[in-house]
Write a structure and sequence with these properties.
The protein is of the alpha/beta class. It is built from eleven helices and 14 strands. A hairpin with a 3-residue loop joins strand 13 (349-356) and strand 14. The longest helix has 15 residues, at 305-319. One of its GO terms (molecular function) is 3-oxoacyl-[acyl-carrier-protein] synthase activity. InterPro entries: Beta-ketoacyl_synthase (IPR000794), Ketoacyl_synth_C (IPR014031), Ketoacyl_synth_N (IPR014030), PKS_Beta-ketoAc_synthase_dom (IPR020841), Thiolase-like (IPR016039). Residues 1-368 form the Ketosynthase family 3 (KS3) domain.
Length: 373
């Protein structure tokens, strides 16, 4: 089995145009959540979200392609031409469906169109889009890691993305899943989630291919697991049975123990049921391991969440800092971080989890890069 290096990554969030600015703002405990001006929120529970300013479009185009152009232009690392392309999104260019458009134009709202567009932009062979609710990009990383580890491909480029659109905002509002104010992950008084938007690109390779292109190991995907609760269409299993299974699978592949995990970057949406489910699941493995969520800073970026949050987890490992759970003032358990925590030793492993509608769960175990990079 090959090692699976993460040899490059970049992100775009409402909190910053790249990984550096986003991370710096997180350490300053800033939040990008604000009043929504993109569409009329009069009839919705929540009037706030985390969205990227000044995305541009023509009358009949989605904002998505402006977001993707910002994300993918001027990448700080080369892309191996032998790579295959995986994308992850829940709704792609769904924002254009608010207009009366031709069938050809409507096709631009679909994930397969975005997959093809990105393939052309990067000049990389499109392979597959994964749409698995809010665990989409976490599963894409698991899929890519599996392909590289088995030697089926040398490199996988994963691009994940989703927009803050009225269509999605209205849907979550109708489910009464939105918080009236900025979300409070793992807070005793949490009321729901806050939507965000953004994207990430990650390059997964074997060590030989990385070295061929002069790339360093920024982190390693050492374990992964995917499962389904088979419990309810939108609600998670109350005891986190599916998430427990996904984490067990990840530990089995990683061949490490729960005591080796330095930090847990949870899904942490701020809904009553999701946060409770995750804490129930974590009880099966951990006692005092610090837990954090960053959705109070960048919002819930849906299909992009896993990819963005994996990049930020690698920054946390490299920086030896566990960030505060922004928005959380009264944590449900003491392991939830409310302030930045500096780790005195060298943290080696982190657990990243994401879950979504339909009972989907995904878990990744990440190892810090060479020399902490």
């Amino acid at each position: 089995m090959n090692e699976v290096w993460i040899a490059g990554f970049e992100i775009l969030t409402a909190l910053g145009p790249n990984i550096k600015h986003t991370w710096d703002n997180i350490l300053q405990k800033k939040s990008a959540i604000k009043s929504i001006s993109r569409f009329n929120t009069t009839n919705y529970i929540s009037k706030v979200g985390a969205y990227i300013e000044n995305l541009e479009k023509t009358d009949n185009d989605s904002l998505l392609f402006s977001l993707l152009t910002r994300l993918l232009s001027n990448l700080p690392f080369p892309l191996p031409q032998e790579s295959i392309l995986l994308t992850a999104t829940t709704k792609a260019g769904i924002d254009i469906l608010s207009k009366n458009l031709s069938l050809e134009k409507v096709k631009q709202s679909l994930p397969f169109y975005a997959l093809s567009w990105i393939g052309n932009y990067l000049k990389i062979k499109p392979f597959l889009n994964i749409n698995a609710a809010c665990a989409s990009s976490t599963i894409a990383i698991a899929k890519g890691a599996s392909l590289v580890s088995k030697g089926l491909v040398d490199a996988v480029i994963i691009v994940c993305f989703d927009l803050l659109s009225e269509f999605v905002h209205a849907g979550f509002s109708s489910l009464r899943a939105l918080s009236p104010s900025a979300c409070k992950p793992f807070d005793c008084k949490r009321q729901g989630l806050t939507l965000g938007e953004g994207g990430a690109i990650l390059l997964l390779t074997n060590p030989k291919t990385a070295k061929k292109y002069g790339l360093k190991c920024l982190g390693t995907v050492v374990g992964w697991g995917v499962s389904n609760d088979a419990f309810h269409l939108t609600a998670p299993h109350p005891k986190g049975a599916g998430l427990v299974l996904a984490i067990k699978k990840a530990f089995k592949i990683a061949k490490i123990n729960p005591s080796d995990i330095a930090m847990i970057h949870a899904h942490g949406t701020g809904t009553v049921y999701n946060d409770k489910m995750e804490l129930e699941a974590f009880k099966n493995f951990f006692k005092n391991t610090p837990i954090f969520s960053l959705k109070g800073a960048i919002g819930h970026t849906l299909g992009a969440a896993g990819g963005i949050e994996v990049a930020l987890t690698l920054k946390a490992l490299a920086s030896k800092i566990i960030p505060a759970t922004i928005g959380c003032k009264e944590p449900e358990i003491e392991q939830i971080t409310t302030e930045n925590i500096t780790i005195q030793n060298n943290p080696k492993y982190a657990l990243k989890t994401n879950s979504g509608f339909g009972g989907i769960n995904a878990a990744l175990i990440l190892k810090t890069g060479v020399n902490g990079n």
